[in-house]
Amino acid sequence: MLVKPLVNPAVGENEASIIQQSQQGDAEAFRQLYRRYQAKVRSTLYQLCGQHQLDDLVQEVFFKVWKGLPKLRNHNFFATWLYRITWNVAQDARKQLGRSRQRIHQPSSALADNEGEISLQLSRPEDSPDLLQLHYQDLVQQGLATLSFEHRTVLVLHDLEDLPQKTIAEVLNLPGGTIKSRLFYARRAMREFLQQQGVQDVF
């Protein structure tokens, strides 16, 4: 199975203090926020956008966080707000890549989903990875590439990033029923894809 980043939406007293200090322009406090959340942001962007310009996208997210923090009124919504910014950056990257593809011929070996969305690179191996684990991660990335960006987003946020459906609805500003429907479809499509590859009892 893929390693799932831990998500703790509740803001503790210490974290609330760090957020408040960051809002007041404390660079060291903001560095602490970055260290706490950059792995989650990077993981989400990687699942949605692949390796292409990943470092730049992560930096863009935290630049927007730094600029927007003074406007955040409720610290308890920081994680939801952060995921919304991450989603917006991923969506903008998708649009920019779509425009680039109209001007530049892409190599035929690039992975692309059935709606011409962002191609995904295969998972990067971790230190001393188990070959079976690495093979499964590769299959998951290929399966995600067969989904539309909208369905992929819901599946990534829910099943790979452990966000509850209610939070995803808030991040994407969509009704809960829409999130539930997209998740059902995405899971079914992923399950069918992986079963075709010989992987059972997943999603």
From TrEMBL:
Identify the InterPro entries for this entry.
RNA_pol_sigma-70-like, RNA_pol_sigma-70_dom, RNA_pol_sigma70_r2, RNA_pol_sigma70_r4, RNA_pol_sigma_r2, RNA_pol_sigma_r3/r4-like, WH-like_DNA-bd_sf
- Please name the Pfam families in this protein's record: Sigma70_r2, Sigma70_r4
- Signal peptide bounds: none
- All residue ranges annotated as the RNA polymerase sigma-70 region domain in the record: 33-99, 144-192
CDD domains, sorted: Sigma70_r4
Q: Which residues cross the membrane?
A: none
Q: Which Gene3D superfamilies match?
A: 1.10.1740.10, Winged helix-like DNA-binding domain superfamily/Winged helix DNA-binding domain (1.10.10.10)
Presence of keyword Transcription:
yes
Q: Please provide the record's keywords in A-Z order.
A: DNA-binding, Sigma factor, Transcription, Transcription regulation
Q: Which domain of life is it from?
A: Bacteria
Read off the NCBIfam families from this record.
PRK12518.1, sigma70-ECF
Q: Which family does it belong to?
A: Belongs to the sigma-70 factor family. ECF subfamily.
Its recorded name reads Sigma-70 family RNA polymerase sigma factor
What's the source species for this entry?
Answer: Synechocystis salina LEGE 00031
